[in-house]
Amino acid sequence: MTVFELVLRSMRQNVKHYYLYFFALIFSMSLYFVFASLQHDQAVQNMTHTSFAFFQIAGVMLIVIVAIFTVSANGIFLRRRSREIGLYRLIGLSKGWVVRYLMIENILLGFGALLAAIICGALVSRLFVLILLNLLGLEGIVGISFSVPAAFKTAMVYLLIIVITSIQIMLTVYRNTLLNLFQADKRPDLTKPPKAVTSAIFALLGLALIGYGYKLSGHVDKELFPNALLMLGSIVTGTYLLFHVTIRWCLYRFRKRKDGHLGLTNSLSMAPLMHHTKANANSLALITVLSALTITLISMAYSFYYSVEHETRRDLPYDFMFENDQQEALSFKMELEKEGINVHHHVVQAVLTVGIILDPNDESYKVEESLLWLPAEQLKQTGADLNVPPDGEAILYDAGASLAGDLDEQSKRYPTEIALEQHEQTVMYTLRTLRERNIMNLNALGSQLLVSEATMDNIAEQMADTPDYKKIHFDTYQVSDKEELAIASSIYEKYDNDERLKYDYYAQYKKVLELTGLLIFIAAFLGLVFLISTGSILYFKQMTEAEQEKQSFKTLRQLGFDVDMIMKGIIRKQTIVFLLPLSIGMLHSIFAIKAASFMIRSDTTFPASIVMVIYTVIYFVFALFTIGYYRNIVKNAMT
């Protein structure tokens, strides 16, 4: 029998061990092919008008994820087949022959995954394009096409993976002795208890570091870079200690409290965890941290996308606005009416001055700024939901207030005073509070202050002779039928050559929707690749442990225990194995989202909850696969 025939026979016999690895590899490389196809698809680029640097970055991240997954899974398989490798060596086959045999098998497996990935990617690429266009709110006909450059890039990724795994195979074969190969699949037991004092100190230190990181999450926006690094470092270090020391120490304390009498269920769940905690600590800690990172990134991307309409309306309360240009405003209105578009037109007279908003916490603050005084009575006629302030008082409206810092900290500045200088005399007005939205479109010059019409007239009379005083005439438009906004926006583009006045609600909404749609598209699919990869690694590790525990199941059968009694303890074990990194990762992500929430002015609770539910469901599927595999092992061991 030739080496090639032996490889094919081995692959047929081991297909039950390979199928999930094969599927995950195909899935990951298919997504890479799709991303590469989108990057080179000219039609999609023309429809989105967006820089596809996002896809290039996503492609690199996909390569990294696929490489890490492949190396991890290949390491598990090599450890499981260590006895087989040892037997080849024992019967006199050279190390070079064994390496050649394993490399041929690896190349065939990878080549099969490559072909399947390219075929699947080509078939589903149109579906992904339609999903992307739907996220971007675009319409277009996308034909099925095959991207040769994308296939070439995917093949290069395959070659990279083959090179890495081949080096891994060579190191495994050449570095290990026969004794190591025959004992490689045996996990070290917890032969001695952890040192009580030292373990307790490091166990508490791990929890303290995580708690400190959680505390910092509420102050990241104050000193972004140092606090973010400190928070990340403390949580990652704390997670490492948690899995390496804290959990092991807690399990030992649990066994000590039971005085070694764990019972069947605990023996099948807690005892294997105690024995394997040290060996699995690195992978579980890594999965926990990366789970937190993935959930955070997807939640933030979804939060941005989910709040686009609301955030755009905060910035641009009116669909269209003209400033001191009555002639073009009238022409725009006539053109809308000519197209049969029903529009509500209102005029708002405002006053622009220069003044100082005093800071009661800093008496030295004397920075002048442009102030736009807007009459509440006229704004109410446009349909704005607001109350008229008392005479002599103002309310500051700023949609970007939260981006400048903590709103609670900013609110401590109010009420305060506004100082206007007129002929060497200072006139004071009360600034009552701050509201996080605009009452005029964001391209209007000056800080937006809501006042009564009587107060604005008084300011106009007092400041009329000052050099920075200016009367502002706003023409505001609201389109009744939102489906006609696209036509109205295309008409508006012909007006206002001044770039500062080129804002309109629909154009800004589509621009931000396109950006956030790309972000959530990329984040979601990267998250799926990571989920499939990490879930598969956990599954492979549990497969290995199940094979190691076969003899224990046979012994339990001889003692009179049935399958259901044994599976009760195994289910508890798998619940802990899958739930522990998932729950801790979710807890990390909650505080990470809290730290990053200052970048999003809307509530992130709903988007984050959706992401966590989906993430949990996918992990639950892998847990079911693992339990099913264990059940088959137990049944076979008892026959």
TrEMBL record:
It is found in: Cell membrane. One of its GO terms (biological process) is cell division. The chain crosses the membrane at residues 18-38, 53-78, 107-135, 155-175, 196-216, 228-251, 284-305, 518-540, 576-600, 606-630. Residues 57-174 form the ABC3 transporter permease C-terminal domain. One of its GO terms (cellular component) is plasma membrane. Keywords: Cell cycle, Cell division, Cell membrane, Membrane, Transmembrane, Transmembrane helix, Transport. The keyword Transmembrane applies. The keyword Transmembrane helix applies. It is a multi-pass membrane protein. Its main location: membrane. Pfam families: FtsX. Belongs to the ABC-4 integral membrane protein family. This is Cell division protein FtsX. The lineage of its organism: Bacteria, Bacillati, Bacillota, Bacilli, Bacillales.
